[in-house]
Write a structure and sequence with these properties.
Helices cover 67% and strands 6% of the residues. With 445 residues, it is mainly alpha-helical. It folds into 3 domains: 122 residues, MgtE N-terminal domain-like (MgtE N-terminal fold, Alpha Horseshoe), CATH 1.25.60; 111 residues, CBS-domain (Roll), CATH 3.10.580.10; 170 residues, Tetracycline Repressor, domain 2 (Orthogonal Bundle), CATH 1.10.357.20. The chain starts with a helix and ends with a helix. One of its GO terms (molecular function) is magnesium ion transmembrane transporter activity.
Length: 445
Amino acid sequence: MSRNELITLLNETVANHHIDQALALLKGVPSADLAELLQQMTPSYAAYLLEHLPQRAYIFAEFPAKQQMLIAQEMPRQVLAKIVSEMPSDDRADLFKRLDPSEQETLLPALAQAEREDIRRLADYVEGTAGAIMSSDYVTLKPEFTVAQAIEALRKDAPDAETIYQAYIIDEQRHLIGVVSLRELVLAQPETRVAQLMVRDVISARVDDDQDHIAKIMARYDLLALPIVDVQQALVGIITYDDAMDVASEEATEDFLKVGAVNATTKLSIKSAPILQLYQKRVFWLVFLVFGSLLSGIGIAHYEDVIAQHLVLVFFLPLLVGSGGNAGSQSSTLMVRALATGDVQFRDWFYLLGRESLVALCLGGTMAIAVSLLGYVRGDALVALVLAFSMVGIVLMGCLIGMSLPFILNRFGFDPASASAPLVTSICDAMGVLIYLFIASMILF
């Protein structure tokens, strides 16, 4: 049965209230695929079907934020409250923050007191920090537990925990003092104390750390989960690898949009975003770069006498200017990635400046040979000389600008991805015109 046929059949069964038949059709389908299927249905049908699915909380958590809101509006308050209470704590808090204040006040009384307090606590953390993405569903053990007691505790907590592969050891004040893996517990003797097995040097993060920093820590140390502590070093939550992957994906998308000079303050889908939103996210940089490009026109106007007497220079102008922008974009892309992965630091700037200069001279020299031959054919030996020197100078300038701009932005606390390809290209275009025509005026006059 094709996907479209399945959706059609589901719509028919739900419309006729044949819920058992609908559930039979969806038996064995993974939660992520179920979420995708339900998105193809009307919100009212999807809400009705979701109410009866056994894994409804996990399916609901898979929905995009917009779809969650549409389906939530179609559900009775008590049904929504049950689904919310079954959701992982971090997903539950995210949904709560998306609701209007009136909807929040309607939902909260239907939840248990512990869930209300947990939602309020997680929802108070600033967006973009570890606290905003952490989960409060984790397993803790006491250092005096035996392995047998620890495994029994894990068995009790497993249904509600995000992960049981790592258990965190805390003292009476909830200070994080160690971590032990499920593997270590399974392999140890039942009478062994947890304190003998736990690792005391725990890799952790602060609740106010940036979420991008969290993703980098987890990738660096290959962690399944990262414990999060407050200023008193008390354990307040964990961040699992799947949440870290979501953060990494969001950061990569944001950087990718910035490289294209697109405002990336919110998620943007070229397929579903409103036309006005697409316009608003792109217009600022394009207008800014239009005025930036006027520098090229000013340079041309300044050297109009040179151009008037040597019209052949115009033929090579796009070629030379484009080469500088291309070289700068390459350098900028490499440097933004290196900064994002932590491969280089600001202290490496001067060392990299020297390396990039050598690379740029080699690139510019190779390109100069090719373009000077063409210049000799179209003009004469002096024109070929102008083109050769200009190509080397423009490529060198483009590479150094492309490499340095991300460093400078990063040094002053700005996102280096803002050194986007269009921005670097516009700067290199203007500088390329000035370099080319300056060299031409020096050699030809």
